[in-house]
């Protein structure tokens, strides 16, 4: 449980990115369910799309902005940037990208530290 708490540590840039990626995936799922009921469900209704469409749109933009900030903080290469941006388009891709980025140490800095958010900006974590 401690590893999961550390993963979503909102004092770190990577923790915020993970949380936004999870929210993006959940909003995608809500939008997909809404589209099912709009086009195939019985009764047909647009409520799900009207609710989850704007929510997903806002979280999608937050994911892209967070990916840019995390990519700068962690000095990602071009390939990682492309994968992050593609992950924002594919349903549930954001979570898959975060899992891959964690496994390949793209969400930790050299030496295993994380960027911690401080009032003056993000600084390397000292533990």
TrEMBL record:
InterPro entries: DUF3817_TM. NCBIfam families: integ_memb_HG. It is found in: Cell membrane. It is a multi-pass membrane protein. Residues 16-103 form the DUF3817 domain. Keywords: Cell membrane, Membrane, Transmembrane, Transmembrane helix. One of its GO terms (cellular component) is plasma membrane. The lineage of its organism: Bacteria, Bacillati, Actinomycetota, Actinomycetes, Mycobacteriales. The chain crosses the membrane at residues 16-39, 51-72, 78-100. This is DUF3817 domain-containing protein.
